[in-house]
């Protein structure tokens, strides 16, 4: 599918072989703030999730794709969540797993591919994302693709003993 192939990366469906990769991501406490996670996930639960990952976005209301380079190395994940067919919108999140692979354009290219996929194949009207006020790199990434800040949720997330504000951003098509 051309829509999911870029110059440096491509997006692909989850595979059973992604168990270790996803287990590392889901159990990395450094990124729990981004994923709103507070407990680790077992390999058993992730395997169950992978066993059902083939289900259609219209059924499960989400789509998780692996961001890979052309050496077939998984670099991160990009997700659509809260997929709402009636209102033609979804939330989006992107994560590059290893710090040394961040700020190299992989997330930017993945987001561009996903936006095109949402317009061409899902016929979405809009995407949104939630980003902590202090996550300047993610704010820069999403703004570079036309997402606009449409709200500020004050004291929204409790992280490491204090509350953080969170921005709501959205992009509309057509």
UniProtKB/TrEMBL annotation:
<protein>
    <submittedName>
        <fullName>GNAT family N-acetyltransferase</fullName>
    </submittedName>
</protein>
<dbReference type="Pfam" id="PF13302">
    <property type="entry name" value="Acetyltransf_3"/>
</dbReference>
<feature type="domain" description="N-acetyltransferase">
    <location>
        <begin position="9"/>
        <end position="174"/>
    </location>
</feature>
<dbReference type="InterPro" id="IPR016181">
    <property type="entry name" value="Acyl_CoA_acyltransferase"/>
</dbReference>
<dbReference type="InterPro" id="IPR000182">
    <property type="entry name" value="GNAT_dom"/>
</dbReference>
């Amino acid at each position: 599918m051309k829509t999911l192939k870029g110059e440096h990366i491509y997006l692909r469906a989850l595979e059973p072989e992604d168990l270790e990769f996803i287990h590392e991501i889901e159990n990395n406490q450094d990124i729990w703030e981004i994923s709103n996670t507070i407990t680790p996930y077992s390999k058993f639960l992730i395997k169950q999730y992978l066993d059902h990952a083939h289900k259609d976005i219209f059924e499960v209301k989400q789509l998780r794709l692996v961001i890979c380079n052309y050496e077939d190395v998984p670099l991160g994940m990009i997700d659509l969540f809260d997929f709402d067919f009636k209102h033609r919108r979804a939330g989006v999140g992107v994560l590059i797993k290893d710090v040394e692979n961040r700020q190299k354009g992989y997330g930017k290219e993945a987001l561009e591919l996903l936006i095109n996929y949402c317009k061409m194949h899902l016929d979405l009207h809009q995407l949104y994302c939630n980003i902590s006020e202090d996550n300047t790199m993610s704010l820069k990434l999403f703004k570079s693709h036309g997402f606009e800040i449409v709200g500020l949720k004050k004291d929204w997330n409790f992280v490491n003993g204090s509350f953080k504000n969170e921005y709501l951003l959205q992009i509309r098509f057509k």
